[in-house]
Each structure stands twice: as structure tokens, then as C-alpha cells.
Amino acid sequence: MQTATRVRVAAALCAVLGALGATTLLLRDGLARPALLAVCATVLVVAGLLYRRADGAESRRPGW
Questions:
Q1: Model pTM?
Q2: Is the torsion defined by CA of 8, 11, 16, 19 positive or negative?
């Protein structure tokens, strides 16, 4: 599997983890735990950054 594909898979897993965590928190506690919601939002931001990083990874540095 190419490295860019692995990074995209990691980004997708991060997005699922962040979205599932945020949804679970909102359904269970509402907005009562803003720190944990911020962590879930951070995981979603990391997923976006990973996906953007994977877009041109092979062209920037072969074998990355």
C-alpha cells in the first residue's frame, strides 16, 4: 500500500473517531463537557490536516 493511501486511511479513521466521539458526547451529556468536545474537534482538524498532507505527498517526496 502506498504511503499516501495509508495517510488517507489514517485521516478517515481520525474523522470517524472524532465524529463518533462528538456525537456520543452530545447525545449523552449535551454541551456539559466542552473540554471533551474540543478534543473531538481537534481530532477532526487533525484528520483534515492529514488528508491535505496526503494529497501531494508522493509528488513532493517520492517514497514518503
A1: 0.77
A2: negative
